[in-house]
Amino acid sequence: MSTVLIADDDTDISDILRRILTRAGLAVLTAADGLDALTTAAAALPDLILTDLDMPRMDGLQLCTAIRATPQTAAIPVAVFSGSLLPGDPRPATALACRAWLKPLTNSALIAGVHELLAAGRHRHTPAHPC
């Protein structure tokens, strides 16, 4: 069973995502902010990280950059999702995120995107090939 780590400071959103992904047959871990997510990712080594952009202590882009800078987590796919991103925003790609999704996202689009990233598996991320 694949494990997904959700980083979001909004507990309602985190709970909804957890339920959707659990029903899709995935194990789910949650973190209330980027710093907690970084600690959890290093300890649990999830197969995928889904992170909100706007969080206290460490935002989603800072989290993605920190994940890429840590050898044991550098290859984990990361998807950023936010209601404050605009289409074409270059910041997620600059932070080497695999995907950037705008909220709201339909359940089916979320599950399809998660399965796509899980199928790609862990891989190297560079500025030339972020994902």
TrEMBL record:
Cited SUPFAM superfamilies: CheY-like
Domain Response regulatory: 3-118
InterPro entries cross-referenced by the UniProt entry: Bact_response_regulator, CheY-like_superfamily, Sig_transdc_resp-reg_receiver
Superkingdom in the source lineage: Bacteria
PROSITE patterns listed in its UniProt record: RESPONSE_REGULATORY (PS50110)
Keyword Transport appears in the UniProt entry: no
The keyword Phosphoprotein appears for this protein: yes
Pfam families reported for this sequence: Response_reg (PF00072)
Modified residues (4-aspartylphosphate): D52
UniProtKB keywords: Phosphoprotein, Two-component regulatory system
Coiled-coil stretches: none
Protein name from the UniProt record: Response regulatory domain-containing protein
Phylogenetic lineage: Bacteria, Bacillati, Actinomycetota, Actinomycetes, Micromonosporales
